[in-house]
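step=encode ok
step=design start
structure_in=
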C-alpha cells in the first residue's frame, strides 16, 4: 500500500504523525510525507520520503497538493488537522483519506479551521477529549517522538522539566519560571530554542513537567504519568490546560510569576493526588491501540 501523509511544517503538527508513519513503513508499506523543508531532515533520517509540495513553507493548499496526488497516486492519504485543504482535495479526487489529530479537538478562533466530516485518527485519550468532538474516530495511542540526543545526567532526587515549545517560548517566560523553580530542592532541566533535548526521554525521568500546554508535551507527560504545571500562551493551549486541570492531572498557577510557578511545582512534588490522576490517564493511554495495531487495520479502511 502507498500512503501519503501531509502536515504543517512544525514539530507540533508533524511529529504526532510520525509513529503511525513508521509503523506503516515497518509493515512494508511505501510511505511519503508532504511537508515544508524544515521537517525534511528528521523525516529523511527515518526513511519517510519527505517532499515539499509546490512552494509550501507551512500550510499546504489545494493547488500545492493536487499535482502531488496525481504523481504519488496514494492508496491512502492521511491529512493532519492543520492542512484541511489536503483532506478536501484528496476527497474531491476520490482518494481514500483520513484525518490525523494532534491532541484534543481545538476550539474555534485559534487560527486553524476545525476539520469537518470524515474519519479521524484520534491520539487523545477519550476521557480528555473535547465532549463536542463527535466525529467517527479510530483511536490511536499517542507515542512521543523526538530526535535523538543526550539526556542530562541526574543530579537530584527530584527532576523538573521545563519547556515552552517551538513556537510560543520566550526568554522572559523561561527566565521567570527558572527563577522560581531553582529555589526548590530539585534538578531543573530546561529546553530552549538553542538547546533542544530528547523530550520523550527527559519526561520519562521527570517528576513534574512545566510547560505551555502544547498538545505534544501534554500527551508525552501523560503517557509517562507525570503531573504538569501549565502556563498556556495561545492556540489550543488554554483548552488543554482547562481539560488537564479538570482531570486532576495538572495545575495552572494563579499568576505568571516566579513565586506562583514555584509553589505550583512544589505542591505537585509533595502531593500525590495529581500524580495519581496522571497515572490513571497513562493507564488509559496504554490501553489505546498502538500504531502497529492501527497500521495493520488501515488496509480495511482503504
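sequence_out=
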Amino acid at each position: 500500500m502507498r500512503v501519503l501523509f501531509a502536515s504543517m511544517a512544525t514539530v507540533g503538527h508533524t511529529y504526532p504523525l510520525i509513529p503511525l508513519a513508521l509503523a506503516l513503513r515497518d509493515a512494508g508499506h511505501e510511505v511519503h510525507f508532504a511537508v515544508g523543508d524544515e521537517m525534511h531532515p528528521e523525516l529523511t533520517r527515518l526513511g519517510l520520503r519527505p517532499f515539499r509540495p509546490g512552494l509550501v513553507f507551512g500550510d499546504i493548499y489545494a493547488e500545492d497538493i493536487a499535482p502531488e496526488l496525481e504523481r504519488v497516486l496514494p492508496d491512502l492519504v492521511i491529512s493532519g488537522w492543520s492542512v484541511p485543504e489536503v483532506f478536501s482535495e484528496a476527497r474531491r479526487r476520490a482518494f481514500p483519506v483520513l484525518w490525523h489529530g494532534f491532541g484534543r479537538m481545538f476550539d474555534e478562533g485559534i487560527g486553524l479551521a476545525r476539520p469537518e466530516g470524515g474519519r479521524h485518527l484520534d491520539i487523545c485519550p477519550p476521557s480528555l477529549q473535547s465532549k463536542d468532538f463527535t466525529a467517527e474516530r479510530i483511536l490511536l495511542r499517542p507515542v512521543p517522538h523526538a530526535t535523538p540526543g543526550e539526556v542530562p545526567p541526574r543530579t537530584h532526587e527530584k527532576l523538573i522539566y521545563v519547556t515552552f515549545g517551538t513556537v510560543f517560548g520566550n526568554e522572559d517566560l523561561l527566565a521567570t519560571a527558572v527563577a522560581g523553580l531553582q529555589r526548590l530542592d530539585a534538578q531543573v532541566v530546561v529546553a530552549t530554542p538553542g538547546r533542544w533535548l530528547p523530550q520523550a526521554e527527559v519526561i520519562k525521568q521527570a517528576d513534574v513537567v512545566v510547560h505551555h500546554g502544547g498538545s505534544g508535551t501534554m500527551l508525552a507527560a501523560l503517557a509517562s504519568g507525570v503531573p504538569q504545571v501549565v502556563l498556556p500562551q495561545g492556540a489550543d493551549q488554554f483548552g488543554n490546560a482547562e481539560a488537564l486541570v479538570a482531570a486532576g492531572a495538572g495545575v495552572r498557577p494563579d499568576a505568571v510569576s516566579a513565586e506562583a510557578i514555584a509553589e505550583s511545582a512544589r505542591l505537585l512534588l509533595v502531593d500525590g493526588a495529581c500524580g495519581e490522576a496522571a497515572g490513571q490517564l497513562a493507564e488509559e493511554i496504554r490501553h489505546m491501540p498502538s500504531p502497529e495495531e492501527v497500521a495493520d487495520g488501515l488496509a480495511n479502511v482503504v
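step=design ok
step=annotate ok -> The two ends are 9 Å apart (CA to CA).
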